[in-house]
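Review session, final week

We close the course with one last complete record, chosen because it touches almost every idea we covered. It is Entericidin EcnA/B family protein, a protein from Hoeflea marina with 42 residues. Go through it on your own first, then we will talk.
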Amino acid sequence: MTLTKISAVLLIALTLASCANTIRGVGRDVNASADAVEDSVN
């Protein structure tokens, strides 16, 4: 039972960590796209 709880906590932690990386990556992509549009306008 304890092993199941530990496994569940680890799974949740890894899932949240991967979501954070994905959101951070999307933010970088949006920022790069905005910079590219701004550069093309100038």
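Two points worth writing down before the exam:
The two ends are 62 Å apart (CA to CA).
The CA atoms of residues 1 and 7 lie 10 Å apart.
Good luck, everyone.
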